[in-house]
Design a protein that fits this description.
404 residues, alpha/beta, Aspartate Aminotransferase, domain 1, seven-stranded mixed β-sheet, four-stranded antiparallel β-sheet, 17 strands, binds D-malate
């Protein structure tokens, strides 16, 4: 008789955003006349920028001609895209990342879930708490997290680093030394950031202790403050201890188009084995590469026209972020985030937990958000709203919340 991977059975409930999707679907079915405003999952609402559409059209035309047709993409991604990334995201910021240290993929969610595969099964992971649930869930599936305690909603073998208003959302170095440290900045879900000095301390810590930092920089396009690093490679020594995950979803609207990449510097080694070689091996075996058409669209993100259009799109979402920040403040809520990130983190009213608040907002205001508890135990008592809605819906949501 075949056997299943029993680690999957340890996962409580469904994936956070699937649970929310089901709840909203049930509410919609029962209340078909209600106009629901979705500020839950961080999904973009603005159409792809004209420069990207133009690149897509022209790549589609190429695929229809024998002379310009493309079959399988190269394992690591097309050179034209990796060169554009290396120049714009790294060289222009003074960081030494070569095109062949960049692995193009179909998005940061998959990469952040899959990257753990190249590490030993007994690696100890550390996560910020609250945290994007994919990091922990994927390690549960791999059998790395020990037993689940439903009371505390924690895993016995995971090191949780609380990031709350009490410590200004900055994780402290854990007592026990982790092998893998997941950091996401600008942060999902709290919208908080680390300064360059704070991130440098983590890089120094990782190098000193032989840990690897898996740095999720999916939201870097939203950084507005000078002292906030756009990439971990702005820190000295990051090439020997950090992997960076990036996405085209949030900066360029590719949540449905799918494109992302992972950076693994060649110096990042365990004894004499380069992680770069392991990830390349995995990519070659398990991944077919993002489509040529999509990689051409990704290249257009870095054109002068593309950059200007996407700057406007980011500004559009950040106007939503200030609308939410101001709206919630004027309704009497305590809020943070929303300055360098498209997420606003709010305290739920006293005595109401985050799932109760989710139901309350859905029923009374027909607004969908994300309960903080879904991101980890320290998220309880908090709630996340995204700035990725339309401006009109964002305004309407604030009006509805003010009237509660
Ligand atoms: C979120 O809402 O946290 C993200 O959009 C989910 C994702 O990017 O996978």
């Amino acid at each position: 008789m075949f056997k299943i991977n029993e680690n999957y059975l340890k996962l409580p409930g469904s994936y956070l955003f699937s649970t929310i999707g089901k709840k909203v679907a049930a509410f919609t079915k029962a209340n078909p006349d209600k106009k629901i405003i979705r500020l839950g999952i961080g999904d973009v609402t603005q159409p792809l920028a004209p420069a990207i559409i133009e690149a897509l059209h022209s790549a589609v035309d190429e695929m229809g001609q024998a002379e310009t047709f493309h079959g399988y993409a190269p394992d690591l991604g097309y050179e034209f895209l990796r060169e554009a990334i290396a120049k714009n995201d790294y060289k222009d910021r003074g960081c030494q990342i070569a095109a062949d240290e960049i692995f193009v993929s179909d998005g940061a969610k998959c990469d952040s879930a899959n990257i753990q595969e190249i590490f030993s099964g007994d690696s100890k992971i550390a996560v910020c708490d609250p945290v994007y649930p994919v990091y922990v869930d994927s390690n549960v599936m791999a059998g790395r997290t020990g037993a689940y305690d439903p009371k505390s909603e924690t895993w016995s073998d995971v090191i949780y680093m609380p990031c709350t208003a009490d410590n200004d959302f900055v994780p402290e170095f854990p007592k026990e030394t982790p092998d893998l440290i997941y950091l996401c900045y600008p942060n999902n879900p709290t919208g908080s950031t680390l300064t360059k000095d704070q991130l440098q301390q983590w890089v120094d810590y990782a190098n000193k202790n032989g840990s690897v930092i898996i740095y999720d920089a999916a939201y870097e396009a939203y950084i507005s403050q000078e002292n906030v690093p756009h990439t971990i490679y702005e820190c000295t020594g990051a090439r020997t201890c950090a992997i960076e995950l990036r996405s085209f979803s949030k900066n360029a609207g590719f949540t449905g188009t799918r494109l992302g990449f992972t950076v693994i510097p060649k110096e990042l080694k365990c004894k004499d084995v380069a992680l770069h070689a392991l990830w390349a091996r995995r990519h070659g075996t398990k991944y077919n590469g993002a489509p040529y058409i999509v990689q051409k669209a990704g290249e257009a993100v870095y054109s002068e026209q593309g950059k200007a259009q996407l700057k406007e799109q980011v500004a559009y979402y950040m106007k939503n972020a200030s609308t939410i920040l101001e709206g919630l403040k004027s309704a009497g809520y305590q809020v943070s985030g929303g300055v360098n990130a498209p997420y606003i983190w709010m305290q739920t009213p006293k005595g109401i937990n985050s799932w109760e608040f989710f139901d309350y907002l859905l029923e009374k205001a027909n607004v969908v958000g994300t309960p903080g508890a879904g991101f980890g135990p320290s998220g309880e008592g908090c709630f996340r709203l995204t700035a990725f809605g339309t401006y009109e819906n964002t305004l309407a949501a604030m009006e509805r919340i003010r009237q509660l």
